[in-house]
Amino acid sequence: MKSLAELKAIREKMQNSVGMREDAEDNIRVVVGMATCGIAAGARPVLTAFTDEVAKRGLHNVTVTQTGCIGICQFEPVVEVYEPGKEKVTYVKMTAEKAVKVVNDHLVNGNPITAYTIGANS
Amino acid sequence: MQEISLNILDVAENSVKAKASLVEITVSEQPAVDRLTVMIRDNGCGMNEEQLTKVTDPFFTSRTTRKVGLGIPFLKMAAEMTGGSLDMTSTPGVGTTVKATFGYHHIDRMPLGNLVDTVCTLVQCNPDIDFLYTHQYGKEKYVMDTREFRAVLGDVPLNTPDVIAYLRDYLREGDRDLQHDAPQN
Fold this sequence. Notes:
By secondary structure, chain A is α+β, with helices and mostly antiparallel strands. Chain A has a single domain (about 20-120), classed as 3-Layer(aba) Sandwich (Glutaredoxin), CATH 3.40.30. Helix content of chain A is about 40%, strand content about 15%. Chain A contains 5 helices and 4 strands, in the order H-E-H-H-E-E-E-H-H. Chain A has a 4-stranded mixed beta sheet with strand order 2-1-3-4. In chain A, strand 3 (about 80) and strand 4 (about 90) form a beta hairpin. Chain A is globular and about 50 Å long. The mean pLDDT of chain A is about 90. Chain B has about 180 residues and is an alpha+beta fold. Chain B has one domain: Histidine kinase-like ATPase, C-terminal domain (Heat Shock Protein 90, 2-Layer Sandwich), CATH 3.30.565.10. Helix content of chain B is about 40%, strand content about 25%. Chain B is built from 6 helices and 6 strands, in the order H-E-E-H-H-E-E-H-E-E-H-H. Chain B has helices at about 5-15, 50-55, 70-80, 115-125, 145-155, 160-180, and strands at about 20-30, 35-40, 85-90, 95-105, 130-135, 140-145. In chain B, a hairpin with a 3-residue loop joins strand 3 and strand 4. In chain B, helix 1 packs antiparallel against helix 3 (about 70-80) and helix 1 runs parallel beside helix 4 (about 115-125). Chain B starts with a helix and ends with a helix. The mean pLDDT of chain B is about 90. The interface of A and B includes residues 2, 21, 34, 45 and 71 of A.
């Protein structure tokens, strides 16, 4: 079994950087639709892919979270990206593979992937 | 829904909406008596009797944005398809318990699926809620209690990427040991 000592080490490592994440000015929010429609369409692996990729790249300014049904169930899994000072980007019919690409192109390099957005798919 | 674990994720979201501070998820696999039970219990706002009788109706929802609510009906259908049932109890101000019973070996029983991802997703998206997850196989079981983690972490949030990675490994190990210890049949 994994030990709680490991968790303690994480705490010590993180305590220096607490406060940097959610309240920072450059904080990017990635919001995955997780209502019945989103879950049935495959939102869970999308959220897991975002979480893993953000952790792997050590992107401390990115928060991955969820929302309910936003009313466009036919486009699920839907992911919204909120960047301060920029217009919201809505990605539709997402997959785990697309999520990894969004982290790399959009969140890291600042280039939203137009082909995955709702504008290109409706 | 293709997996029971997705139904669990969906129904547990109701507990989040009900403003629960503690959500208990118990999965009990009892192949010897041909039974699989899934229980989700919360200490949220609860439902009155009228809501409780209507909640398995897909055309009833507490939401005001639209007129359908499919989470509970999906779980009920999945359970009944296997000769099982869905039972709910609720008390306003105290909480709600949802219990689904499945025929373990029934051909129409969906696989449990990825319970680890379901629990990780719930913790990641709701770092201020405590989750008590118990997975039982026959007499063996393992438990994950976020209150235990929270006590160690202090003010470091549960949805910190490193903590979620730890949690994922913790759950994977627990699941693997459970399968390993379980008698094969």
